[in-house]
User: Fold these one by one.
Assistant:
Number 1:
Amino acid sequence: MLGPVDWAITNRCNLHCLHCRGMGKEELDKETLLRVAEEIPLLKPAWVIVEGGEPLLRRELFDVLEIIRRKSIRVHLITNGMLLDRDTAQRLADLDVNLMISVDGADSASYETIRRGASFEKLKESVAVAGECGILDSCPVTIGKHNRGQIGGLFEFVSALGFRKITFLGLKPCRDYGRYVLSGREYEEVFYSIVENQRKYGIDVFVDEPFFKPFLMEHNIAYSAAGEDGIRVPDTSGCIFGGYAFIETNGDVKPCTFAPVAMGNVNEKSLVEIWRDVQNSELVKKARDLSMRGSPCRECVHLRECGGCRSRTFALTGSWTAADPSCPLVGR
């Protein structure tokens, strides 16, 4: 069963973020772009994420959104907010699009250092406009060594802005990854801080890390099912490598946004054919086979709830089946 489809529709961006994974050198032409938008509903995805680069820079963005929304598929648009105005926000509202505006820094200095070229004041204006138009969804925050000490400040800031949900994303493979990726001990500290501040501010929290649920279970910390209030954990909490489709700006289809492998390209095959190839891929089967995990993952009681992040593990170890080096439960 397919989870979401995550689509980077443009390689253009108006910022230079510290944690950028890098963009493909090419974009799909208009004809192919719209054909792919028509094909996405055929996969019956749980939802669709539209991102970039900066998706508001893609001229055909609203054509893509209209095509996908015709089938009543839930759409989340991730933007840095620098190009959002009231007219754009209202057009998104008319299509019932959920807008996610990335933050990453709790104050002007840190935010503008992490998101080079961004304006802290414009961020606040865009969040206000999105809130007034009723489209403001969660606040994506990418956490690494550069901002791990700002959890409390981030909660305070985004709460004051009007966000009611934070989505924490562990830093994934990017330029200088080894310099910024969190260790297991640092993840543990970050998770404790997230739990503490969630209780303090009452903002709903989702943490996109496969070992977050095992962390909560180990420490007897209550959590809610996806869609409920509080600390939200989906039923399928482990790594979804190969369980969703990521479409790169040039049309490559990958088993993970951060995987350095493509299973096909929409310029050459239909998205339906490529998704079939993903499911039949020996690499995907190998990466998802929990019996092949290396130690200490293999012996962990939480193996089936977690399994570790495959793209991070490959980036740090060169192996698709090794234990996740950033796991906060190792050594407990």
Note: The radius of gyration is 19 Å.
Number 2:
Amino acid sequence: MWKKTRLIKKNMKKIISLAFALIMMGGSALAQETIQLPQPDMKMLKMTVAKAMQQRRSGREYVKGKSISDKQLSTILWAAVGINDPKTGRLTTPTAVNMQDIKVYVCNEKGVWLYSAKANNLTQVSTQDLRPSLTARQMFVMDAPVTLLLVSEQSKNRRPNERYGAMDAGYVSQDIYLACAAMGLKTVARAMMDQEAVKKALNLKEGDYPMLNHPIGYGK
């Protein structure tokens, strides 16, 4: 009986320690929800490239509380880092030495999701609202219903290069701008954010760099 009681206490300590660790991780280890996105709608991008370039603007005022649809989000993500040739797996945006290093995280009030181009889905990696760490005192970010966070995942690359990652993030950023212009949405590319808070919340590895974030929504 005494041994059994000691064993129960030992196991309880382990459970409490594990629960505390999960809380300290911001709930990221608990978040495993997967959202299947609808197929990207090419009709939403029917605007000519020339017209989209004419319409492209950096928007910093958003209609608070007006969400974008899952189909809109899926189409923007496809434009950003989607697969444009299923046979070869080629992406919509180029990357230096074909690193394909840019990962896009979708951030909103309910948490953070990682986009998979191959599966066309979102996997929740944190239940934390990361947007306050992205504002850098520019509170208009909180008015946008969604923010895309671009991370250069250099830790898995055979030739890590932060400068290449910055270039690649720029390519993705431009496609986000053009897609939003074609769809009548507003966005702005921002490098400002609390880098350390972002890395901690997403459990990023050494060599993974948060590059840019794009609030997206309807402009005022």
Note: The helical segments are 2-24, 49-55, 70-81, 131-135, 162-182, 195-202.
Number 3:
Amino acid sequence: MQFVSTRGQSPAVGLSAAIAAGLAPDGGLYVPEMLPAARELREGAALADTAADLLAPFFAGDALESALPSICREAFDFPVPLRPLGNGDHVLELFHGPTAAFKDIGARFLAGTLSRLQAGKDQDLTIVVATSGDTGAAVAAAFHRQPGVRVVVLYPEGRVSPRQAHQLGCFGDNILALRVAGAFDDCQAMVKQALADRELQAQMPLSSANSISLGRLLPQMSYYAHAALTHHAHTRRRLNLVVPTGNLGNAMAAVLARALGVPIGQIALATNANAVLPAYFNGSDYRPQPSVATVANAMDVGAPSNFERLRWLYHGDDAELRAAFRAFAVDDVSIRATIAAAHASRGELFCPHTATAVKVLQDLRARGAKGDWAVVATAHPAKFEAVVEPLIGEAVAVPPALDALLRRPAHAEPMAADYAALREVLLR
């Protein structure tokens, strides 16, 4: 299969080349030249096997094709349970990996692909990644001490939780954390600028591990497929989803899985006060905005990169795209209230991002939504103890893997929100 840019000004490339590059030369995002036909997937298969079956057409004819089953087994070695909440509601828990966030799944898969592509090369590959909280730690954990690769992580200083910040700086070795005096959108813009800098690329191979990378996006379809197939096997009904989203990568994976024939029903998008997507789906023009800080900080994105891919999938037809989805913004007051009420009434613990999706589902049910729904739980609440614990009046138990990271010393270098400063660091 060949892959092209969403902007249509770059030549088609194979999957390995698209993953290695991260971003297309014209600044667009790589997408398949055409979507493969709907897949017949096995209900009841293990997650790794579902992933390999689902992704096989994208790897067909590529140098990585024979390694796909092994990559899937390496990446998908922890559970992603679909847990019932009652009355047709469920929660899809994606936070049981080493850094307690859903980003572990895509990052570990990407590490499996790039490690194989990098084998035998003389020059190290530099992965430059922007994070609004969870991506950076997942990427750092996946690539830590991996030969031939160094990782540079940019995060907005003061706009991630204390535990997220500690995770980002606790690895050392081949991982460098940069705390940027700006917003996530500044970090993301600098990463894109570096990947498009041909003079820099001539001096050092660069790639990305953000959701702009196909190596992150494609494997994220797998947990949606596994959950929907498991649900369908027991109920013969489609599973509807509420996906908390910032940069639109996680939601885009659900959209692609549905397009490939996975039994997914409606997909609702839940955002925080950064309401660019709800405004668009309510009929306004798509207008990126400066991001604002919220308690659901991993979704503090004012210019969601994967919107380009969403538009590509719907051939740029805004009317058709708006008809296919709904998007809702949830403010901090409502996020906090949802966390407190869920714990008080049912003993449930949700991180701020998951609580955003829970609130959207509650509102959908109040408006008469039928069928079976799952909210996507993107991170463990222990990563946001400063928000969650005052609301529930007790400490949140820390998962062992996260606790081990928090016990390590951490350091991050300060950096201005300026591309020249990043370029200097990369060349250092």
Note: The first strand starts at residue 2 and ends at 5.
Number 4:
Amino acid sequence: MLFSENIYKFMFAALQEAELALEQNEVPVGAVIVHKDRIIGKGFNQTETLKDPTAHAEMIAITSAANHLQDWRLNDCDIFVTLEPCIMCTGALLSARIKTIYFSTFDRKFGACGSLYNLAEEKKYNHKIQIFSGIYSSESEALLKKFFVNVRYNKN
């Protein structure tokens, strides 16, 4: 086991959020934010449902966690997300001062934590986020594949 049992537990919770997105015909990405070993914010992609391009899992989880703590600073918080955060979400995570990002699988088209860019660990900002990847990657990839196969099938 590469990570502690809690890391796997929290990533599993993010996968459950991704499954909720899949059930609603959204790109299956889920996120949870953890503070002191407790989930204080969670979210899943809702861009289609809300007709909002910013309604990514991470953005919804950030809002939920900030409301819980009654503070926009999430300094002592970690995020667990099933897909590598994009530029928008990584920027929001930097602004929120998240401590650590754990993600399942890389996003080769939009990823900003190692794929296309690595904004989270960039030394130019006043904050740097630690990154860990690969936790439940095959499960996350399977959900994404299922979604996109369904999208292609329903277009024909």
Note: The radius of gyration is 15 Å.
